[in-house]
UniProtKB/TrEMBL annotation:
Matches recorded under InterPro entries: Pro_4_hyd_alph
Provenance organism: Vigna mungo
Cofactors named for this entry: L-ascorbate
Alphabetized GO MF terms: dioxygenase activity; iron ion binding; L-ascorbic acid binding; oxidoreductase activity, acting on paired donors, with incorporation or reduction of molecular oxygen
Keywords assigned by UniProt, alphabetized: Dioxygenase, Oxidoreductase
Coiled coil: none
Gene3D superfamilies: q2cbj1_9rhob like domain (2.60.120.620)
Database matches in PANTHER family: 2-OXOGLUTARATE AND IRON-DEPENDENT OXYGENASE DOMAIN-CONTAINING PROTEIN 2, 2OG-FE(II) OXYGENASE FAMILY OXIDOREDUCTASE
Name this protein carries in UniProt: Prolyl 4-hydroxylase alpha subunit domain-containing protein
Prolyl 4-hydroxylase alpha subunit domain: residues covered: 150-388
Region entry Disordered, spans: 1-21
Biased composition, class Polar residues, residue ranges: 1-10
Source species, domain of life: Eukaryota
Length: 432
């Protein structure tokens, strides 16, 4: 059956019963434990809902037999009803607003370099980097990377031509934003001169960037941080300089007073305090809407809401300098910490400084505390991609401490072990 033959409502009723003459009790909707693997799921790509259409395609094989052969409309309603039980209303509203916001931009912004909106590895990456990725082994990655501090990797990555195109695309988008007077969401509270790439059509390219490029490396180096199960991304380009984002230097004071700064903290919930989408009357039929897939990073907010300020919102972070003339802007690192120990003092071996080189990348765990020193002259642009693993986050809920990667948890555990040893020795002495 073709998609056009279906009449699926954009927002089906959350509950209800009578459909095509049959009564379905949506309050007792259940899925089967085992999928019906020989069942061919229908195509749901045309759906415009709060859930990714692919979720419906995957879920269909788990439908009970009495629902499996009903109309697509009934199945959509049935599956949506189940999904709603697992998805709080606030999150759904937030995602819907973000979807509308992106759609509005994508339908109106004319890209300058269309060729960078689709992954083209041969033209994006340097030949040596591509060879290592194609070989896909720890040895091949290490052959092109330096590890100046434990778990932090630096390497040459992007071709100068691609860097130039991405920078001019960002400039073009900023000009368009100024011209249309659209109020856009910035990547974080610290970046008033930055743009979120997923917001203007680069989401599909970033999907491939994460799955084909970052994932193979993080699978090898960051398995303890969910590096094998990255499933969403937040990609942005920021510009630093005298007339741009120089504020980062302020945060150095926190470090100098013995406290450490993690830029992710400011990112959580730091978006504009009201939805920038004033007109949601969007042409749903445009082909560009297909560019909108699942909303990466559900934590991204369009409204001011209570937030957990200690949550760190990514597992793996890639930072690539795109270029321009500049001096200063070094990145400093202060060691990996869990949320509870994010403000603990850095040990001497954990401190590391990095100076940007255009086209070169620095890859590190998202929980590696870091900040940037001020760009003292000129301007520079950086591409930053944060990747997240929902599996890691789910598992993390069941853990109380993280001695395998948090420097402070590890020290705490070691102190407890030593204290136990001393107590045992004292007891033994008394018995003698
Ligand atoms: Zn810890």
């Amino acid at each position: 059956m073709s998609q056009n033959q279906h009449s699926v409502p954009q927002q089906p009723r959350p509950s209800g019963g009578h459909v095509t003459g049959r009564v379905v009790n949506l309050n007792s909707d259940r899925l089967c434990v085992s999928p019906k693997r020989d069942h061919k799921s229908e195509n749901y790509e045309d759906l415009q809902m709060e859930f990714n259409p692919h979720v419906f395609g995957s879920l269909e094989q788990y439908l009970p037999p009495h629902v499996l052969n009903l109309s697509r409309e009934v199945k959509v309603r049935y599956m949506r009803n189940i999904l709603l039980r697992y998805f709080p209303e606030n999150d759904r509203n937030r995602i819907q607003k973000l979807r509308e916001y992106r759609l509005k931009i994508i339908l109106n912004y004319p890209p300058l370099h269309r060729e960078i909106y689709t992954m083209d590895a041969e033209n994006f990456f340097t030949p040596s980097f591509l060879r290592a990725i194609k070989e896909n082994t720890e040895a091949s990655f290490r052959s092109i990377m330096a590890e100046p501090s434990t778990g932090i990797y630096t390497f040459e990555m992007l071709q100068p031509q691609f860097c130039k195109k991405l920078m001019s695309e960002v400039d073009s988008f900023e000009r368009w934003v100024r011209g249309t007077k659209l109020r856009i969401m910035r990547p974080s509270a610290m970046n008033k001169h930055g743009v979120v790439l997923e917001d203007f059509g680069l989401e599909t390219m970033l999907d491939r960037f994460m799955s084909d490029i970052i994932h193979p490396i993080s699978r090898v180096f960051y398995s303890e941080f969910g590096g094998s199960s990255l499933d969403s991304h937040h990609g942005f380009v920021v510009e630093y300089g005298i007339s741009k984002d120089v504020e980062l230097g302020r945060f150095l004071q926190l470090v100098e007073f013995g406290r450490c700064f993690v830029d992710a903290i400011s990112w959580i919930g730091s978006q504009n305090c009201s939805s920038p989408v004033s007109n949601s009357n969007i042409n749903q039929s445009d082909q560009n809407k297909r560019n909108l897939s699942s909303v990466a990073f559900l934590g991204r907010r369009t409204k001011c809401e209570p937030q957990n300020s200690s949550e760190i919102n990514r597992e793996v972070s890639l930072n690539v300098c795109l270029g321009k003339e500049f001096s200063g802007g070094e990145v400093f690192f202060q060691g990996v910490r869990c949320e509870e120990h994010v403000l603990s003092i850095a040990q001497p071996g954990e401190i590391f400084n990095y100076s940007h080189v255009p086209g070169h990348a620095i890859l590190h765990p998202g929980r590696q505390r870091h900040g940037a020193r001020p760009t003292t002259s000129g301007n520079r642009m950086n591409l930053i991609i944060w990747c997240r693993s929902s599996t890691f986050r789910e598992l993390k809920k069941y853990q109380r401490d993280f001695p395998s990667w948090c420097g402070e948890c590890k020290r705490k555990k070691e102190r407890a072990r030593l204290s136990l040893m001393v107590s045992q020795q004292e007891l033994l002495k008394r018995e003698i």
